Amino acid sequence: MERGSPESFTRMGTLGVEEECFVVDETGRPTSGTDELVYEHDPPAILEERLDHELFKFVIETQTPLIEEPDDARDALLEIRRALSEHAHAHGYQIAAAGLHPLAKWRELEHAEKPRYRSQLDRIQYPQHRNTTAGVHVHVGVDDADKAVWIANELRWYVPIILALSANSPYWNGFDTGLESARAKIFEALPNTGMPTYFEDYEAFDRFERRMLETDSIADRGELWYDVRPHTAHGTVELRTPDGQADPDVVLAFVEYAHALVEALAAEYEDGATGRAPDHRRELLDENKWRAIRHGHDASFIDRDLEGTISLGELVDRECERLGIDGIKRVYERESGAERQRRLLETTGPDALCESLLLGVE
């Protein structure tokens, strides 16, 4: 039973980005290709030990190398994306990205044979059988285990902001769900997902993780699929909430925001702040997340002080000024991913929609 350790938390502010993407054919439609790309052909050197697949044979995952400085994030992300795209093209495939592929129908697609996923399918059944989701995970290094748990607690309130900005999955199983991020709702059907509860310190989180393992509630610690979590192996806080994105600039905006949030919260912790997390009931955080799922860029949220509501636009302005960032402002001011998908399907059809989801590498 592999366990994490508080000793993993040694470095502050490093970054890592995981992206889940779709293997598609020459027309941009989902197709099984991960066996060839992951197992049957050697990937480019930069992807060695950084390329894997997910539950379905059309969902592939990459990881950047450890990013020492935020300014290096763009080059690291684009290098991985280019390598993946070139690897796919060399074997007759393309790569696309969104929270859900709008033309993916789960009953028509193959599941992977990896024992871990076969076990999950047997144990979880229907919710996992239909799980065609793809997201972005941002890791930020934290140099103390208790600090990491405190930061993860505080980050829960910010999860819906990031989800609303990233909303890029209006279609699931071939129909319009009426949601801006159907991925988030599909994924929440799995156990141990969604908004986590509050943990008093690292010992409390470790006790929970251990109990889940010892009671066979999870097969490994990676099955704690919450929207934000302290990663007890990597020594990071991991934000797992954004929908997948074709445009690297959108991903990099979330990387910038996540890094700035973690650094700011770390400073608060070091100054002895008590934080707001103890007052943030999970039910209220779930309400904010629902607003992000349903309304995307048009969402408003219960504010951090719980005294009223605030629009996403106001929040973005406030956060950019507070943290000295601008990426999420540009994301907010552009057409959302969900809006773009609907517009393209309605005005130009499925071919243009599929083309728009191809992975950007510049």
TrEMBL record:
Its EC number is 6.3.2.2. GO terms for molecular function: ATP binding; glutamate-cysteine ligase activity. Signal peptide: none annotated. The keyword Nucleotide-binding applies. Transmembrane segments: none annotated. GO terms for biological process: modified amino acid biosynthetic process. It catalyses: L-cysteine + L-glutamate + ATP = gamma-L-glutamyl-L-cysteine + ADP + phosphate + H(+). Keywords: ATP-binding, Ligase, Nucleotide-binding. Belongs to the glutamate--cysteine ligase type 2 family. YbdK subfamily. This is Glutamate--cysteine ligase. It comes from Natrarchaeobius halalkaliphilus. The gene is gshA.
